[in-house]
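Dear colleague,

Following up on Tuesday's group meeting, I ran the structure prediction for the two-component complex that the binding team flagged. I've pasted the input sequences exactly as they went in, so you can double-check that nothing got truncated or mislabelled along the way. The structure tokens for the whole assembly follow below. Feel free to forward this to whoever is handling the docking comparison.

Inputs:
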Amino acid sequence: MERRPKSLVTSEDNRTKEGALKAGTVLQQRYQILGVRGSGGMAVVYRARDLRFDKVSRICAVKEMYNTAPEARLRQLVRQSFEREANTLALLSHPAIPHIVDYFGDQDHVYLVMEFVEGDDLESLIDDSPEPLDPDLVTSWAMQICDVLDYLHNHDPPFIFRDLKPSNIMVNPYGQIRLIDFGIAKVFERGQRGTMIGTAGYPPPEQYRGLAEPRGDLYALGATMHHLLTKRDPRQEPPFSFHEHPIREANPKVSTALEAIVMKALEYDIEKRFASAQEMKAALEAASRPAVKQAPPASTVALSPDEALVSSAEEIAPYWAFGCEDEIRSSPTVSDGIVYVGSYDYNVYAVDAESGKFIWKYPTEDVISSSPYVWEELVLFGSEDHALYALFKDSGRIAWSTPTKDRVRSSPRVALDHVFFGSDDHHFYCVSARDGREMWTLDTGSYVRSSPAVSQERVYFGTSDGSVYALDLLTGKQRWRFATNRTVISSPLLHDDVIYVGSMDWNLYALDAHAGWSLWSYRTQGWVVSNPAISETFGLVYVGSADGNIYAIERDTGRKAWSYETGGPVTSSPAVANDAVYVGSTDGRVYSLDARRGDLRWKFDTGGSVVSSPTVSAAALFVGSRNKHLYALPL
Amino acid sequence: MKILGRLLNRERPTLSPGDEARRSPGIEVGAITALSGGPDPNEDALLTLQGVISRGEELLPLCACMVADGMGGHAGGQIASDLAVRLVGEWIVNRIYRPFLSQPDDPAGRQPVSQVLMEAIVAANGKVHKACPEGGTTLTCALVLGSNAFLAHVGDSRAYLVSRDTIRQITTDHSLVSRLIELGQITAEEARQHPQRNVLYRALGRAGNVEVDTYLQSLPAHSAVLLCTDGLWGAVSEEEMLSIIGTAPTAQAACNHIVDRATEYGSDDNVTAVLVQV
């Protein structure tokens, strides 16, 4: 075959504005360009007619590649590399591999003439489809690809495709596939400088450290299948992130068996993938047999490992349960081996943390929903009888009380020897922790049921008109006010100069503690009256929502890390300890979740709605229930 | 009132470092961008908008700054990075600075900062994509509010948190090699030499949509946020950055020294750094 070009076209006259050859141009006095079939990167593929067969219209594909190497010697190397590859290709013979007819080239371009393949490439098919492709169709293509990969990998010498992806796979109207690009273009893409955008999306990670081996092609096949089955283009995603996007989430029509095969092909560790294309094909065949796809009959549904864990873990027994005469909505506090909790039976109770034995109780004039707070020798709490009480924590005798003009549902906090709390009389109070004398008050114009967060300089709380206030500790002067769109009952959490607070407008807010700017907000699907909690270790903020979920929100980004759905609105506030989050739900259960991932560790059914928030000591978890009991649970 | 005042005077703990920072006249910003030795135009861009607002006796620093590293032929990179910082800067002025000036006591109804920054970058992405289809750019932006920094980031420019004796990369590079390091395929050292070390999987202006990483970083007293393009972090080690920032008399001097060092080491890329010290 004549290698020296006779009529190579490089003249500008024969090219369109885009640089492609115009229709009618004849290459090598033999291949007449009919039009552009496709283009990408450094190559254009033309539809051309082979003039050697002048009696019939024999159509072929001509692929034109640009040799852009900057120096003459490099260009020479590129050409040689191309010729070597073209010669290798000419040796391959498989129904899924198009025949090479000819090749030629000059200083600027090289051309490869191939059998023309009818049909569409899989990339255009998935791009044009409004939905992920049919799993059966994808499986049948994948089995054919396994066949051709098996041929290539067992060729002498073995041939690694290296660049398997939807745009390199054609399917004809009979459902037969062809591989159309044998990575030849690659030799033209070296030597680029400067920052570039784009990853291939399909190649295995080891290929980027120069390792090309058969199981890398299986990874690329897995990546291709993932794209076709989910319609999620891996080139638009962080590289190698398939495991973060479960196939069945995007396309429930995919069987678990097929999903497992694709994910096995996509293992980072080569050894964990299928050993060969044949093995992968066998797995695909097995998965496509109808018997395997049938779901087990409903009566014999096996427990998933998660459910199995739950059913055994659910059997945790409380250390003790302490009964009151009415509901417990208040959250317990534990200090020096004693648990303090308020009840709707008007009493505050002191109970031995280890044994659950009654120590003392103190009766107020109305129900108690405020949660006790221990400061030095005192237990402080509010009652719906309008007063704030301070009791001696050892005896339960009263030290002092401060009247307000309406119910006190807010739970007090102490800083610098002063107690801060709110009342339904619209006022926020600062009183002396020593004797209850009023230091200052602020009329907010609406109920104050949120419990304050205090720093050395400021106090933060929410009100029923939707405001979050920051006041000066010293003077009660307003520093800033942030308006949410609904009532704020949730108590602010102050951490690292950021205030986290929920609102009944469904959002959890992160506010700058100094300026009151909203840093981020996360919208749940229900009221957020639960108080946020934070894990420093995982950088997560936890909060419950009336939408039934407990949420873990990334502190740094305001994005959801995970959520866990309970059986009812979550108004209880989470407690964080020992890498676990504990929270109650109105479905009657107390949940223990893995703080990092949100997996269920155990749940405990109290039989009554749990709106009380758990408190954790070194030894146990304490929580109240509307079934009139206070529980001590194992951690 | 008297009692509380006395109590507070007596019992008030000595000012914590955070309080001290809050009482300083604000923040100090240094910025520099330098051409590489090569023939390429400067594809880096930077922007700083520095301010201090008083609230009663308290001073609230407010500073937006960003760096961008453009990519793409036919000056596309230069246009993209320049356009991106100006668009994002304009957005921040309109959505953060302006509302603050017109309604200083009403932070209500204002959008969360994270949302403003994210929308700024998404909007800039659309405009850059349209104006300059050949180009793209990284963009790393920090908004410092009091002792919190909010960051928004696309690409492989970086934000570091620098404190007295530690330096920590806050952002994640959206680069192929950073993913390969994460997966244990290559080492950080191999990444420096990797033929595809400049390949990004995410950049501003390269597609109709862009996903933006945001971070909330609280700033301890005497800490700093360093924003820089790969021309700097690719040439100067983190230990050296830390030592230069720790010894330089001012933020600007630190920026100058750090860029000099990158040039000394023969960084063949543009070098851009912005340092915000609180």
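Confidence is low (pLDDT under 50) at residues 1-23 of chain B.

Cheers,
M.
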